[in-house]
Amino acid sequence: DSIFFRDGVRQIDFVLSYVDDIKKEGDIKCLVLSQERRREFEINLRKTGLELETEDKRDSEDGKTYFVKIHAPWEVLITYAEVLGMKMPIRESDIPPPDANPFSCVLGPLKLKKAVKHPHPEYFTAQFTRHRQELFLIEDESTFFPTSARNRIVYYILSRCPFGTEEGKKRFGIERLLNSKTYSSAFPLHDGQYWKPSEPPSPVNERYILHKNWARFSYFYKEQPLNLIRRYYGEKIGIYFVFLGFYTEMLSYAAVVGLACFIYGLLSMEGDSSSREICDPEIGGQILMCPLCDQLCDYWRLNTTCLASKFSHLFDNESTVFFAIFMGIWVTLFLEFWKQRQAKLEYEWDMVDFEEEQQQLQLRPEFEAMCKHRKLNAVTKRESELIITICALICIRNFHCMSVFFWMSLVIACMVAVIVYRLSVYATFATVMESEATLEPVRSILTPQLTTSLTGSCLNFIVILILNFFYEKISAWITKMEIPRTYQEYESSLTLKMFLFQFVNYYSSIFYVAFFKGKIVGYPGKYTYMFNIWRSEECDPAGCLIELTTQLTIIMFGKQIFGNVKEAIYPYFVGLALNWWRRRKTRTNSEKLYSRWEQDHDLESFGNLGLFYEYLETVIQFGFVTLFVASFPLAPLLALLNNIIEIRVDAWKLTTQYRRPVASKAHSIGVWQDILYGMAVLSVATNAFIVAFTSDIIPRLVYFYAYSTNATDPLKGYINNSLSVFLIADFTNRTAPAEKRGILTCRYRDYRYPPEHESKYSPNMQFWHVLAAKMTFIIVMEHVVFLVKFLLAWMIPDVPKDVVERIKREKLMTVKILHDFELNKLKENL
């Protein structure tokens, strides 16, 4: 269980593995080529100063895997720490910590022990240089560089080490060797086992501390040990957990307000005059509604939607407007405070002067393999910069655009197919539920409209999961075919495609219900048809908001359940099965030890895109919380509960299920921040339109102020006022019910003149009043929210004042310390 070479002194910083296994006769040539590449690569690694030790396959548990252990000695570490511009401590900081939180006593149970939260004191730091070693606080050379810095240095060397020349070009980098299967894996070693602390002389097992204080679900209410996460996994992974934790914390405020709005709707449900009128047998029971489908559907009584109208009031009430405005302000505060948190983090993690790492700008092996042309580099003045020809670039871009357009079209086609399903089965549900007397108890809860909406939403969610499965693979293939120049370009291109696709995939059906369903229906006798076959869907007399809430709930809740099963439950049981199999193999091969490097080798690889999918999942959830939150105030609460689980699940996976990722730096969440800003602006417009056109708030307000004649209950008579009259004799043969009845008129949801009016069935004056009120509300709400957003953005500085002062103080002290050091050194030489 050692993390050292056989001498017990030199620590293992990195591990390479490979298998020399000939499965076919033709593989002998590839085997010889791989052996030659490995031999050349390892010779060059030793020339850089790295020390290697190989474990023979006969000593491995499976009997066929070789392991090459790599140790970086002190001279290599200090050389490349200077090359990478690493900042190391020079003196303990004398800057006092920020003022204590006045609620610290109340928040005490949420805090971690100081030794876990801040494992090391704050230091003034400076870029490491070899000729100033005496300046730095080097107490022990073996522990001066944290293990994350050591594996970052080794990976930097591995990514630039040559292994031969082919076709006149020098080949280099571990990534190319992994792609060609010369090595099967390359990974830094974990500090030790996650279930027990290390014993001397091993260093402190930070993996065990993280698992004990961070990766256990019983600690869900505790803060995260962010400094320890950064120290062990690097800044790039650390900042993801800072963002996820901050986002979850901000969600708690939105969840409380959303829950209060929901409780208000629950308490005021019985007092809602609209649902009372719909449920009243003397009012809603006497209103005969026009059929909701052609020929097969019959007339129906308005009070059959009694339960749906009560449920609709839960989310469609006076608090809806308040919550929509609140969330517009909340999202601004979230993004502004995140900028402050990010600035504070840059200072605390020595990222103020951070520049993109060279490893992020490194050319991808696939790009080097495909590019045959070179041009003069403007900086080096050498003809060494690889390029793709203009013709090839145009072909690649056209291919990319057509592929993305095709898959976007496929998503929209699937959404249209679900709409067609809803239009087709509604008549079936209506016919069955009306003809079967045994369904009478069910009919009081599940109306044909609600049944169609529920089944359509579930079908839509299944289609979303299927399309996601295929597109994840297709988008990676398309991005690979584009031949991006660097890993950063590759990730940016993949981010754009995956986000656009998932945006359309997850939100298209919700946009349809929110902004299109029930808006272009027409009226009895002159309905609008899709493809001239299926009649457009109508909203429930209580409004379309309840259907939007249903759609949003099923997709959001289903996505979170599926994600947690995929990320936690499935890996947990798979891990149990693999551990049982490994223990069984160990019992049968008891003479062979299951070494530390083999244990880590058997874990899953985190991969270069591990964080990409985590960010993508969070951003899609952010869209559910902000874009359509006016229709579902419980969305922030669902997201909060999911994220509390998500933090611990991600922590558990990183500490127990994955190999240790290579540490890398990052000073922000990158392109995701721009995406969040775009969605925040869009959310103001979508929520304004939902309140205006999907909710029933504006028509009720217009009736309340302009058309009500009842002083004691101004909304009394609203339902009758919102329904127009249609003469059954005006039905066409296509739309009239098959069964003839002695009925003269039926009602439908719209503001149109009655049959006896000279402009019969044309929009009446109230229609234009309601439309004008809706447009006015949208303009006013957007201007108010955007004005508040701009004021908040202006008032809240991107970098807090105390952080600015601390940065200035540290720069001043660093210059002074360096000056004093050089001055003393000069005096000693004299």
Could you please describe the fold and organization of this structure?
A hairpin with a 3-residue loop joins strand 15 and strand 16. The two termini are 52 Å apart. The chain is α+β, with helices and mostly antiparallel strands and 830 residues long. Among the domains are: 1-86 and 128-189, no CATH class; 235-283 and 306-519 and 539-692, no CATH class. 56% of the residues lie in helices and 9% in strands. The strands form 8 sheets. A 4-stranded antiparallel β-sheet has the order 2-3-1-8. Strands 4-5 form a two-stranded antiparallel ribbon. It has a two-stranded antiparallel sheet with strand order 6-7. It has 26 helices and 18 strands. The radius of gyration is 33 Å and the shape is elongated. One of its GO terms (cellular component) is plasma membrane. One of its GO terms (molecular function) is chloride channel activity. Its main location: membrane.
